[in-house]
Amino acid sequence: MSLGKEYLNIIHVRFKHVKSLGEKTLTQLTEQEIHWALNQESNSVSMIVKHMSGNMLSRWTDFLYSDGEKPDRDRDSEFIEDYPSKLELMLVWEKGWECLFTTLGSLTEEDLLKTITIRGEKHIALDAIERQLAHYACHVGQMVYIGKQLKDDQWKTLSIPRGASEQYLKEMLAKHD
């Protein structure tokens, strides 16, 4: 396998993991909790999801051929709390990820070194992909943090539970022997 093809496989898995962490967080939150924000300057999980989806639709639509900041995107509206239901929010979430994965699945290794633009700034496609992974991972981390704060001792961990690192390591080593 070539380096480019291997990269495309790996990055697909990484995006899937980030998406999964976000979804595991969203499933733990109630309708009311997805709209909670600490203060006026903080974003709710609902706003973060709207922003991520808006960003995905803008960046991944026509990825190789038009600027990643589409003229019809209204970024400021992504930070208005206006999704009344978790179901509607999940549809927005899926729409963004579907756009991302459709485009990612269409890329070839030759595409990775093509020049694309985001807000007029030139990037090689590989760099733009990495930029988006970092952006989405940051926002999903915010969602997880909010979820942990709201759920407190009701939170179902998304990784290795506290105090279980040694046991987890043993299981992983035994699994790979």
UniProtKB/TrEMBL annotation:
Pfam families: DUF1572
InterPro entries, A to Z: DinB/YfiT-like, DUF1572
Domain of life: Bacteria
Annotated Gene3D superfamilies: dinb family like domain
Alphabetical list of SUPFAM superfamilies matching this protein: DinB/YfiT-like putative metalloenzymes
UniProt protein name: DUF1572 domain-containing protein
Organism expressing this protein natively: Bacillus coahuilensis p1.1.43
